[in-house]
Amino acid sequence: MGELLLGGRRTGRDHTVKDPDPGKAFPGGAIYLSFPGLGDRLAARVAGEIGEHIEQFDSPNGLQCYAGRAPVTRRSGKSDFVARRLAPNRYLGDAVHQWAFCSLTQSGWAREFYDAKIAAKKSHHNALRALGNRWLEILWHCLTRRILYDEDVHVANRNRALGRAA
């Protein structure tokens, strides 16, 4: 799967690809490779678990539920609590969790988002779960619109949504 995203086999001691043509063999492969924190191997894991047909998920929430990232509220009488899905795709969920962690050093808004969750007394893993949930939402939008991820566009949209000055 990694070879499909990279456009060829890794060769040599430094494991580089001869004549690379990244993202051309797998539908949306270039989109996966445009995200910060998604290297070629992790992008291959995420792409392989989601598959070629993003249209099977009618909303970002559908993809988030499939990965087991979306919280599920269970209500019973007077109590309600937040749980996880019973049958998620654990491989995709694990890959997204790792993606969220790897993106902390490569994306400024991701670090800011994570730090805000930690400041709100969330645990490390809860903050990563929330960040992974946000990444899946962005990935769904990029794949359905067939556009590469652009950090500047996302930060501008995020600031506008949060009511911040540009």
Describe the overall structure.
- This protein has about 170 residues and is mostly helical.
- Helices cover about 55% and strands about 10% of the residues.
- It has eight helices and four strands.
- The strands form two sheets. Strands 1-2 form a two-stranded antiparallel ribbon. It has a two-stranded antiparallel sheet with strand order 3-4.
- Helix 3 (about 40-50) runs antiparallel to helix 5.
- The mean pLDDT is about 85.
Give a quick rundown of the structure.
The chain has helices spanning 2-6, 29-33, 40-50, 60-67, 90-103, 108-119, 124-145, 151-162, and strands at 10-11, 16-17, 72-76, 79-83. The chain has 166 residues and is mostly helical. The strands form two sheets. The protein has a two-stranded antiparallel sheet. It has a two-stranded antiparallel ribbon with strand order 3-4.
Strand-helix topology:
Layout: H1 2-6, E1 10-11, E2 16-17, H2 29-33, H3 40-50, H4 60-67, E3 72-76, E4 79-83, H5 90-103, H6 108-119, H7 124-145, H8 151-162
Antiparallel strand pairs: 1-2, 3-4
Identify the notable features of this structure and list them briefly.
166 residues; mainly alpha; two-stranded antiparallel sheet; 8 helices; 4 strands; globular
Could you report the average pLDDT, rounded to the nearest whole number? 83
Helical fraction: 40-55%
The count of β-strands is 4
What percent strand?
5-15%
Class of secondary structure makeup: mainly alpha
What is the rounded Rg?
17 Å
SSE topology string? HEEHHHEEHHHH
Anisotropy-based shape? globular
